[in-house]
Amino acid sequence: MTDLARVRSRIWIFLAALMLAMTASVAMAHNVTEGDAGYVQEVSGFLPIPFIYLGAKHMVTGYDHILFLFGVVFFLYRSRDIGLYVSLFAIGHSVTMLTGVWFGIKINPYIIDAIIGFSVVYKAMDNLGAFKRWFGFQPDTRAATLIFGLLHGFGLATKILDYDIAPNGLLGNLIAFKIGVELGQLLALSLILIAMGFWRRSPRFWGQAYTANVVMMSAGFLLVFYQLTGLVLS
Questions:
Q1: How many helices, marked H, and strands, marked E, lie in the chain?
Q2: Residue 27 falls within a domain, yes or no?
Q3: Is 94 a domain residue?
Q4: Do 96 and 147 contact (CB within 8 A), yes or no?
Q5: Is the model's pTM score more than 0.90?
Q6: How far apart, in whole angstroms, are the C-alpha atoms of residue 114 and residue 226?
Q7: Is residue 12 part of a domain?
Q8: How many domains does the structure of the chain reveal?
Q9: DSSP code string of 109-129
C-alpha cells in the first residue's frame, strides 16, 4: 500500500468514526421511540400485525445488530455457513429476548448496550485475525456468535420492558415481535449479502476489507465508550 493510500485509509477511518460520534446522540442503538412506546402502553390484547411491524422496525434501525451481522457474514461465502451462523445468532437472540421479558429480567441499558458494542469490536478483531496474531489463540467463532446472540437478546428484552406491554396477550405479542425481528434481520441480511456479492467481485476487495473491519472495530469502540459515558453520567 502506498503512502497516499495509507493516508486516505486513515482519513476514511477518522471521518467514519467522527460521523458515528456525531450521530450517536440522536440514534441510540436500542432506542424506543416516543410514538411506539405510547402506542404499546395504550393497547391491550393480542395484536400481531403492529408487534410484527415494531419488531421489524427495531431490527432494521438497530445499527448495532446490523454491524454485528455484517461482521459475522463478512468472510462467509457458502450458504450453509451463513445459515449456521445467522441461526446461532437468532437462537441466542430469541431465547434471552423471550425469557427476559417473560420473567422481567432487566439489565442496565447502558451496560448491555456497551457489551453489544463490544460484540462489534470482537467480530471485527476476529475478521482481522487479531486474536491469533496478538494473543496466540482463536476463539470458537460459533460459540461466540451464540453467546453474543444471547447478549443481544437481553438488550432487546431490556428495551421491550420499557414498552410496558399489557399482560393481556403478552406471549402472543412477544412472539409476533420476534417474528418481526427475524423478518427485519432477513431483510437486512439480504441487502448485506447483495452488497457483499458485488463488493467481492472488485479486485480491490481484499485491500479494502482490512480498512472496513478497522472502521467497524472503531465504531464498536465508540459505541462502548458512548454507553459507558452515559452510565457514568446517569
A1: 10, 0
A2: no
A3: yes
A4: no
A5: no
A6: 8
A7: no
A8: 1
A9: HHHHHHHHHHHHHHHHHHHTT
